[in-house]
Specification:
Radius of gyration: 26 Å
Number of helices: 18
Low-confidence stretches: 1-5, 412-439
Largest sheet: 6 strands, parallel
Strand content: 5-15%
Strand order of the largest sheet: 3-2-1-4-5-6
Number of strands: 13
CATH superfamily of the largest domain: Crotonobetainyl-coa:carnitine coa-transferase, domain 1
Helix content: 25-40%
CATH architecture of the largest domain: 3-Layer(aba) Sandwich
Number of domains: 2
Shape: elongated
CATH topology of the largest domain: Rossmann fold
CATH class of the largest domain: Alpha Beta
């Protein structure tokens, strides 16, 4: 990929009109960070999520919400009053210049204004419309209100999150995971619809149920029930499972926490042996001979542990060896040492540790964005993954209220020639995206 394409992103030339919503904001952010021209539409005075805590320096205000800033990086911002006839025409103008409409409105609200997919799509057969609602538009429960917490609880993920002690209630997954999950499905659906449009010449309606999205993303819980009619049980820092698995959370020598994974391959047991010898700990580990046995037999097969007592003993010894090493080393030293030796372990970090970790810094995870109105550089979380041919990049701060009310409505462009004054792009961006993504 050349430098220009990397700067523009894999979705350069794709234009998205997003009606601001709490549960669809992450989908819009993904589009924007991947290079799409995203226009987020707010009511006059700004969307309610601008008042979500926390605020910069604990000073409240619609232009200081860290929540709003995070979820709206790289977007253009406009205000539209759907109760105003002139603004209704402005909204239609935005839709006419867009490839995708992304919205999370209550079912029926847009139809009441004559602005729903069924109203606008007949005039624009290329339009891809993505709706994110609690249960899907046609569901009998479509009008029920939800929150991120109720989605996670009712759909299943909360059942799998918690501790070995089941006298304690389940633990809510943090970080708006219910909304995030729905947003990821929305992005996938939209991208598939764009591919289909290139083949068929027409857009389509993508109906995302937040409840269904979380239910099919419960790791093994839903599938275990559907296939085996078995219920998984939550475990501390481990995958929920039908049968208990050995503990994985380990308190290291310095009080920090690490997570060990069951060694399986001969190379992993060899690494444990060499590490213990290097630290002069081999004689102090009573199960050392099990590690040597694992190397002689070429490792173990996890699925065979229940029917192979020797493999079970070796597996427990490997698990105990990781714990033994961690208890003799500072958490960071254990983590780095295990990684260098090809042992799949993790370390428990606080948010500030993640931002400061040299590995995360080296891969560009902390992103510095300048806020000219504050004359300050602020640190944002960057791309959650790196794809060699599809770079994800945070492209600038979130918009102020109505900041692009002029530029975003410049209709000198078209769907095949995105709005240059609003995005800094032109028709070349879209053609580059098409040429690099053949059907």
């Amino acid at each position: 990929m050349n430098a220009a394409a990397e700067r523009l992103g894999p979705l350069a030339g794709v234009r998205v009109t997003e009606l601001a919503s709490e549960h669809g904001a992450f989908a819009g952010k993904i589009f924007a960070d991947l290079g799409a021209d995203v226009v987020v539409v707010e009511p006059p005075g700004g969307h309610g999520s601008r008042l979500f805590e926390p605020f910069l320096d604990d000073i409240g205000g619609p232009e200081r919400s860290l929540w709003w800033w995070h979820y709206n990086t790289g977007k253009l911002g406009v205000t539209i009053d759907l109760d105003d006839e002139y603004d209704v025409d402005r909204f239609r103008t935005l839709v006419a210049s867009s490839d995708i409409v992304l919205e999370g409105e209550p079912p029926g609200r847009l139809a009441a204004y004559g602005l729903d997919y069924g109203d606008l799509a007949p005039k624009d057969e290329h339009l891809v419309w993505v709706s994110i609602t609690p249960f899907g538009r046609a569901n009998p429960r479509a009008q029920e209100p939800v929150t991120d917490l109720t989605i996670l609880a009712a759909a299943g993920p909360a059942w799998s999150c918690g501790y070995d002690d089941h006298s304690l209630p389940p633990v809510r997954p943090g970080g708006n995971q219910g909304y995030h999950t729905a947003s990821l499905w929305a992005v996938m659906g939209a991208l598939v619809a764009l591919w289909a449009r290139r083949r068929l010449g027409t857009g389509q309606f993508v109906d995302v149920s937040m409840h269904a999205a979380s239910n099919v993303t419960t790791e093994a819980a839903t599938y275990e029930w559907l296939v085996a009619h078995a219920t998984v049980e939550r475990q501390t820092f481990r995958h929920a499972a039908i049968r208990p698995t050995p503990p994985r959370l380990i308190r290291a020598f310095d009080g920090g926490y690490v997570i060990g994974a069951l060694p399986r391959h001969a190379s992993e047991f060899t690494a444990l042996i060499d590490w213990m010898v290097e630290l002069s700990l081999a004689d102090a580990f009573d199960e050392f001979f099990f590690l040597e046995m694992a190397v002689e037999r070429g490792g173990i097969v996890v699925s065979g542990i229940e029917i192979d007592p020797e493999a079970a003993a070796i597996g427990l010894a490997g698990n105990d060896a990781l714990r033994f090493l961690a208890e003799h080393l500072p958490a960071k030293d254990f983590f780095l040492g295990a990684q260098r030796r090809g042992l799949p372990v993790g370390i428990v970090y606080a948010p500030e540790d993640v931002i400061e970790d040299e590995h995360f810094v080296a891969r560009g995870f902390p992103v510095h964005i300048y806020h000219e109105d504050l004359d300050r550089w602020l640190i944002y979380p960057g791309a959650p993954f790196h794809a060699s041919a599809s770079p994800w990049r945070v492209r600038g701060r979130a918009p102020h209220i109505g900041e692009h009310n002029g530029a975003a409505f410049d209709t000198t462009g078209s769907r095949e020639n995105p709005v240059a004054t609003a995005s800094g792009l032109n028709g070349e961006g879209r053609e580059r995206w098409k040429s690099s993504n053949p059907v």
